[in-house]
Fold these 3 entries.
Entry 1:
Amino acid sequence: MTTSPAPGDTEVGLVVDRVSKSFGGIRALHEVSMTVPKGQRRVLLGPNGAGKSVLFSIIGGQQPPTGGRILAFGRDITRLPRRRRAALGLARTFQLNSLFPRLSVEENLFLGVQALDRGSRSLLRPASTHRRLVERTDELLREWRLDDRRGAVVEELSYGEQRQIEMVLALAGRPRLLLLDEPTSGLTKSETDEVVAFLGSLGREITVLLVEHDMDVADRLAEWITVLSLGEVVADGPPGVVRADPRVREVYLGVSAERSEGRDA
Amino acid sequence: MIGSVPLRRAALGVLVAAALLVAGRAVDDFQLRLLTEALIFGLFAMSLDLLLGYTGLPSLGHAAYFGTAAYTTGVIAAEATSGFWLPAAAGVGASVLLALLFGLVALRTRGVYFLMITLALGQLTVGLALRNRSLTGGADGLAGVPRPDLGVGWNLWPTQNFYYFTLAVVAVAALVLWLVVRSPFGVALRGIRDNEARMDALGYHVWLRRYVAFVLAGGFAGVAGVLFVYHNAFVSPDALGLATSAEVLLMVILGGAGTLFGPLLGAGVLVTLNYTISSFAERWVLFLGAVYVLTVLVARRGLWRAVPVWARGTRSMLAGVVTIARARTGRGAR
C-alpha cells in the first residue's frame, strides 16, 4: 500500500485517508486509503458490492463518510458542499445515466457548461446571447460529433448516446478531477473502444478516477489499479503487479469467473 | 439554438397581440371586462407556471400572493390614496415579502409535500384575512376600491381604458417572464425540474435558484393581484384560498405547464367558460371538474402543445384522404 503524503502536496490530485462507512450495522467501507497523483488514470476495481460506488459518492459528496478524510488537490473536502467540490474542479458521472431527459442535447450540455460560470446567474438575458457559453457548447457538440443531434430530446436518444452525454456533461465544466462511474457499462464493443480512446486522449491536467468491474476495460485504461473487496483495499499497484497478485485472483477473478454470466446485472 | 424562437411561433405571438389590441375597440363592455379578467388570471397563471412548469414545484397555495397583493393595494387605495404607484408597489412588495418568508418553509419539501405545505400556508392567509376584520372586512371582503389615478391624465374608469392598461401591464410582465425562462437561469430551472441531483453535482446552488423562482412567482402573482383588485373594486378571502389556487393550477395544466403562454390561453378558456356557464347553470365547480377530466384525457400536455398536434393530425388526415381520392381517380382514369 502506498503511504499517504502530507496534505498540501501539490503533486497529489486525490487522497482518500482511512475512509470508513457503515449503514446501520453493515460495514460498507473499512479504513480505505489511496493516493492518486495528479494526471494519473486510476482504476478502482472490484466485484459487485465491494464498496466502489459508496466510495465514489463519498468523494463526490453525495454521502458523508462515517470516518476518515478526503483531500482534493491538498484541500480537505470531507465536509465541503457538493457545489464547492465542483468549483474546485471535481466532476463525476453516475453509474445509471443521470441526465435532463426532457431537455435537448444542446440544453443538456449548456447546463454543464454554465454550471460554474457566472453567466448562469443571468436572469434577463436570453441564453443564446451568452457568447462564451454558447461557443463552448458548440465546441463540445462538434468534438463529440453530436452536432446533428443537438435539437434531439435526450429521453429519445439511444442508450449509447445517453451514456456518451453522461460523460460529456461531466467534462463540460473543464474539471481537474474526473470521477467516472463505470462509463462503459451497457455499451457495445465499438462504443467501449470509443470511450477508451477518448479517455486516452484526455490532457494530463485532468486526473481520472474510474470505477470498473470489467477487468479488460480496466487493463486498457489503468496506469494504476486499486482493488476493493468487501469494503477494504486488497491490492494497490500497476496493472501487471495487481493482476499477478494472488489475493486479487482469489477475490476478484474468482468471483468474476463465477458471475461472468450476470456481470452487468 | 438555445432559447431561439421559431418564426411561426413569433408570428403567432404578433397576431395574438394585434387581435388583443383591436379587441379593445371591437367588442362590447361586457366582453371587454371578461377579456380584462382573462388577462389578469393569465398573468397569475403564468407566474405559477414558472414554479410548476419550469421549476417542477406544484404549488396549491399560489393564491396567497395574488390575494395578499390585492388586499394590500385595496386597503391603501380605499383608505389612503387615489394614486397608483404607492398602493401598487405596496401590494407587489407585500407578496414578495410573503414569498420570501413562505419560501423558506415550503422549499424544505418536494412533490406532494410541497403541495400540502403550500396549501396550508395559503389557508393561513385566509385565516388572517378573516380574523382582521377592521382592516380586511373579514368574510364580507373589502369593497369600494376605486380605480387608480395614474397621474398622467389617463382616466382608468372607462372599461376600455382599464382594458388597455391591463393589457400593457400584462404584456410587460409576460415579456419579463419570457426573458427569465429564456435566460441561463431559466434553463437551470428546467434542469432542476428534470434532475435535481445532477444539477447539484454539476455545481449549481439548487436551493437558491428554487428560492429565487419561488419569490419571482410570488411577485408576479402579486402584480396580477393588484390589477385584480382595481378591476373588481372588491376582494374577499376567496381570492386567497384553495378554490382560487386550484383554479389557477387548472389554468396552467389546461394551457400547458412549461409553455409560459399556454397558461394565458388556459386562463382565457376558463374565465370565458365560467361566465358562460354561470349564466345558465349554478354548478360551475362541477363543470370545472369536467374540464379537468377532459384535459387529462384529451390534452394531458395542455392546449398549447395539443393544438399544433391536432392541426398536424387533421392535415395529415386530409392529406391521406386526398391521396386516396387521387389514387382512386388516377386508377379510374387509366
Entry 2:
Amino acid sequence: MNQSDRMLTAPDAPRRQPTATRAAATAAPLAGGPRPRRGRNVTRSLTRVLVFGAPAGLLMAVFLVYPIVQSFRFSVYDWDGISKATWIGLGNYQELVQDALFRKVVGNSLLLAVLGTIGSMVVGLLWAYGIERRLPGWRSYRFLLFIPVIMPITISALLWALLLDVQGPVNQAIGWFGVDLPPDWLGDYRVAPWVVIFVSIWQASGFTMLLILGAMEDVPAELHDAASLDGASALRRLVSIVVPYIRGTLGTLTIVQFIGLLKAFDIVFALTAGGPGNATDVLGTYLVQKAFAEGRYGYGSAVAVGMTVIMLVVSVVFYRRLLGKDEEQ
Amino acid sequence: MALNVDRRRFLIGTLGVAAAGALSACGSPGDDGDTKTGAAADKDVDKLVFLTNADDPTAKPISEKYTKTKVEVRQTDSSTYADNFPRIATASDAPNIAGFFIDGGRFTDLAKGGKLLDLTDVWESSGLNKAVPDLIKKKYLEFTGDGKVYGVPTNTSRYGCLFYRKSVLQAAGVTPPANHVWASEAEWNAACDKLKAAGIEPLSVGGKDGYPLSHLQDGLLSSVMAPDLINSPLKIDYNSPEWKAPVQKLLEWNQKGYFSRGFLGRSTDQGNTLFGQKKVGFSTGMNVWQPLVVKAGTPVEDLDWCLLPPIGALPAKMSIYAGGGVVIPAIAGGHKQAKEFMSYLVSPEAALDGAKIGQAVPARTDVPGLQDALGPIGGSMVEFANQKDRSQFGWDDPAPTDMIEYDRNNLQAVLAGTLTVDAFCAELEKLKAKKR
C-alpha cells in the first residue's frame, strides 16, 4: 500500500457510514421488513445509555457540570465564601460590564492568546521543519527545545524573572554592548506584557513543535522529491506542501493553544503577579484576585462565567473556521 | 442484537446523568450548616498538626520542645496563606492549630459562623489578659464584637521603617540619622542624593508583592494623619490632601529615582538580595524583620534601621502590626490538647525562644530578658516602639479587605504611571461609601 492509499484509508474513514448504507438502513422498515418493537428498544437503549453512560456521567457531573452549575449559581449572589449569601440577581454581571479593569483584563488575555498562539505556532512549525529536514545536530536540538515543556511553569517563570531582573544576566549582557540603561523588563508597564507573551511562546513552542513534527512525518516523501525536482526551495515546500498537508493538526493545535493561553494563570502569576499595576493581569489572575484575595466569591464566579462564555464563543468560531471546512470535505 | 444507541443519544444520556447528579448535589451558597463541633471534634488525637506560613523560623524548634503531645509542624507558602485560610480552616483535614491574621476583620465571618473556637479561656489561663497591652487586646476583642476572642497573638511586627547598611552609607559619605529618626525630609533627600551621586541606588523595595509599598505608605502617613483617624478607615476622606500626601510622595521619590530601578518587578526576596549585594542604601526588608535580610546576605553587624522621614507636621512613627496569631479550627479534633499547646506557644518561655531563634517579638510584655534575646537590632526596635508616641497601628490593619487589596494592587499602578493619584484615591472613597 503506497502513501496515497494510506491517506484514503485514514483512521477517520471507517467511522463514516457510506450514504447508501445509511439510506438503506432508514428505508428497510418501509420496505416491508419486520416492524421494530419501538417501545422495547427505547427502554433497552435507555438502559444501555444509563449503564454505559453512568461512570462517565458521574465523573462529568462531579468535575465538570457541578463546578459550572455552582459557578453560575454563585455568580448571582453577593457572597464572601463563608457567611450566608445574599441573592443579587444579575448585580455581579452589571458590575462586570461596567468594570473598566475587567475590560482591560479581557484585552490583555486576548493579546496574550492571539500573539502567544501565533508565536508558538510559527516557532514550533519552523523548529519542526528544521528537525524534519534533519538539520545538523537535530537530535540535541529536538531535546533542548522540548525542555521548556517538561519544566514546571512556575520554575520557568521564576527563572525568567531572575534572568530579566534589571540587574540580571540579560541586562548585564546588554550592558556589554554599551547600553547604559537597559530595559526594566518586568517593572515597566510598557514592556512587561511583551515579556509575558515572549515567555509563553518560549514555554509552548516545544509542545507545538513536537505535535507538528509528528504530523510532518506523515507527509509523503514523494511530494518533497517531486517538488525538489521542480526546483522548489525548502521554504516553498513548507508553504505549498507541508502546511496544507498538516492543516488539520495545525487547526487543532491552534485551538488548543489559544484556549490554553486565554485561561493562562500560572505563568503570569509567577512572572509578574499581574503587575506592574494591572499591566499583565489576565482573566485567570483577575478571577483569583477577586474571589480569593478580596473574598468576593460571587463576583469572582461572575468573572468565571464571563471567561467561560468568551472561551466558548472563541472555540466555536475557531472550530468552524479552522476545522469546519475539513469536516465538510 | 444491534444497539440502538447512536452517538448523539449516548452523549445526551451521559450529559443528562451528569446534570442530574450535579444539580442534586447543589446546595445554597453559605448554607452548608454549622461546623460539626460534636464529640468527634473534641476527642483526643495522637498528634497535633500545626499549620503556619513558611517564613516562620520559630514554629518547628519551639514545637519540638513541647513534650505533652506530639506536634507536627506544616509550613505553607506565606504569600497565599491568608487567601487560602478560609478553606484551610473549614476543610475536613483542617489542622488542629493554625497561624492566622486579624487583618481588616477578613475572617470575622469565619468566627461568627462557629468555624473557629472561642479562646477566652486560653487568654485567661496563659496570663495574656494581663501581659498583652490593652491596644492589642482591643484588636482581638473587636474582631467579632461578641465579647469572645477567637485568636491568640503570638508575635508582633514592625514596619513603616527601613534597614540600612552602615558600610554602604559610610562609603557614600551619608551620616545615618541620629537615634533612628530623620530630623527632616530634607535630610533624607540629601542622603538619597548623596547615595545616587556615589552610584548607589537609594531604596530597595519588593514592589511586585504589593504590601511593601503599602507599608511605606503607612509609614509616611504617620507624620500626616492623626493615629485615631488612621485607625478609623471608614472616617477618612480619601480625597483629602492628608491621605494623598504619602501617595504623592512615593510618586515623587519614584520620579527622583530614589527607588532601585526595576523595583515594581521585583519580589521582597529579590529586593533583600539587592540590599545584601550592597547595591542599595536602604531596604524595607519584610515588616523590617531582621532574619530575612540576614538570610539574603547582609551581616547583622553591618545592619541598622531608621524610620521613614517625616513628610508632614507630625513626627514620623513606627507602625506596629499585632494581628499575627494562632487559632483553633472548630472542625479539627483534639481541642483540649490544642489549647494546652497554644498556652505553651504563648508562654514567656516559648516567647523567649522565639526571640532568640527568629527575632520574633511576642505580643506579651512580661518576658524577662526579651531585649537581650532579640539582639541589637530587634531589641532597639522594641525599645523604640515602647516609647510614648513613637509607634502606632497602621491603616491596613482595621481597613476592610477590599480596600486593603485595592490599595496594595493599585499603588503599583500609580507608581507604574498607569493610574493617577486622584483616580486612585477616588476609588478608595467609592469603596468606603459601599461599606457605609
Entry 3:
Amino acid sequence: MKRHRALLEHVLGALFRRRGRNAAITLGMAALVGLFSSVLFVSEALRAEYRALAVTLPDLTVQQLVAGRPALVEAAAITRIEALALPGLASIRPRVWGYLYVPSIEGNVVIVGGAGTDAPGVLEGGRWAEGEDEIVIGNGIAHLLGARVGDELALAGPGASPAILRVVGVLSGQTAALSADLVLTTEARARALLGMTAAGFTDLAVTLARPEEAGVVAEAIAAALPGARLLDRRLLERTHELTFDARAGFLGAVMLPALLALLLLAWDRLTGLGDAERREIGVLKAVGWSTSDVLAARMWESALVGLVGATLGLVVGYVHAFVFGAPGLADALFGWSSLHASLSLPPALDFAQLLAILGAVVVPFVGVSVVPAWRAAMLDPDRLLRGGP
Amino acid sequence: MTVALATFELTKRYIDGERRRVAVDAVSLSIDTGRLVALRGPSGSGKTTLLGLAGGMIAPTSGDVQLFGASIVHLRDAHRTTLRRERIGFVFQELALVPDMSLLENVLLPLVPTGGAGRAERERALALLARFGLQGREASRASRLSGGERQRGAQARALLRDPSILLLDEPTAHLDAKGAAEVVSLLAGLRDEGRTIVCATHDPRLANDPRVDHTWTMTDGRLMDPDAPRPEAPAC
C-alpha cells in the first residue's frame, strides 16, 4: 500500500512533467470516447423512449393486403373478428391514417384521424382536435414551420384544394422520435386529406386482455380474414430495438476499433517510448527500481490518463447527446427524414454500459502503453542509459 | 581484511553488427573492504563495462562477480535489484539524473519503490546535498544544473542508502581542478568511513592522487597491472 502510494505520487509528478503529451492523449481519448458514447447514449435513449411509448400501441394491428398491396380494411372485417368470440379479445378500434406530402416542408407528414388522448404522444400545449378544421401537430412540424397553437396551416389532399386548418395543440418533444411528423385531426378531415372513402379504414387496432396470447389470436384472425396482415406489437418492439441496435452497432463498429487502434498506434509509435523515457527507465532501474516497480508506475500513469480521458469522453458524449441533440449523429441514428425529431431525449443511462465503455477503453490502453515499457525495463540499465537498442 | 568485491575470469562480449567485440576479457581482481581504488584506461578500454558488471547492471557473458563473498551473477532480477538498491551506490558517467525532476526528487528516487521518503530520509538527503555543496539547489531542475552540480548530485544520491560499495564512472569528468580535488577529498572521506570505492577514470588528477589506495590500468578489456591483487579461484 505504502509502495503504491509512493509510486502514485511519483506518477503524478511524471504526468505533470509530461503534461503536454498527456493532455494530448487525454483529449484525443476524450474525443474518441465522447463520439462513441454519444452514439450509445442516443440509441439507448431512443430505445428507452420507444419502450415508454410502446405501452400505448395496440397488441395487434390488422391490415388488409390486396395482390400484395396495402388496401383499406372494410368495416365488415370488425364484425367477422367479433364473430370469432375470441376469449382474449378486449377491443377492436378502426383507425384512419396515412401519409401526406407537404410541399412547404418538402416531406411527408402522417395524418391520423380520430385520435384523441390515445394518440402516440402527449400534448405540449393546447388541446386535442375536436372540430373539422382543427389539427394537433407534432413537435417536428411545429419546429420546421415555426407554428404555434392558434396558427393556421393549409393542407391539401390528393386532387383537392387546400383546406385552412387551425393548430389547436402541439405534441411534446419528449416523444419526438415517434410523434414529430404527426398531424392529428378528426376522422372526417383525415379521410378528406388522405382521399379515403367512408367505407374503409387504414387498419384495425386490436387490444387483448392477455397480450401474451397475441400469437394465437393473430392466427385466428388471419384465418377469418383472407389477405389480412397482422402486426404483433412485441415484434414491432423487437424490430425497433434491432433497428437502433444495428444503427448504433454499425457506427460503433466503424468508429471504435479503427479510431482506437489508430490513436493508440500513433501514440505508441510516435511518442510511446522515446529516448528520454528509455533513459528514465534506465535511471530508475539503476537506482534500484525493479522491473515490476517500473511497470507498476507505468500502469498507474496509463490508467490515470485512460480513466480521466475516458471519463471526460463520457461527459462529452452525454453533453453531445442530451444537451446538443447529437449533431452529426442524429441523421445516422434517426434515419434521413426531412422531419427530424428535435431530439430533446430524456437521458437514459445504463450504469453497466458506462462501466463497459470505461473497461473497453482503459484496459487496452493500459496494456498497449505498458508493453513498450516492459520491453525496455527488461534491458540492463547500462544499455538504456547509453541509448543502445 | 574482508574482500568486498571480487571478479573471476569475468568476460563480457557484445555483438556489434557483424562483429563480436570483447569489452571485458577474463578480468580477475579482488578489492578489500574500505579501499579507494581507481580503474584507469583510455576510452573504450572496458572500464565502464567492468564497473557495470561489478554493480550488477550488466549480465556477464562468463565468469563470476562476488560481493562480500556471494555471487551476484546468477541472482534473479528482483534480487539483483534489491542488492543494487541496498548495498551498491552507482554514479554513472552520464550522471543519470532525470532532467525535468528537481535535484531533491532525483536524490530521493531510490526510495520510491520502498514507500517513498519520510521526514528522516528527506533530512538525510538534504544533509547529503549540503555535504556535496548543493544547499540551496534542492528545488532546481536537474536540467538547469551545471555539469559539476549534476555530478555531485548523482554522488549524493548514490550515498542515500548508505551503501557499502560505491562504484563511480568518471567522477571528476565534469569538474575543474578545484572541483576535482574536492571530489577526491570527499571520496577519501567516504573511504575512511569504511566504504569500498571503485572509480573508473582516465583523469590523472584522480588516478594519481596519493589518497587512492590502488590504481589498475585497463587496455582492450584486460587488466594490465601485473601487481594487481588477484582473488583465489572460487570453490566449486
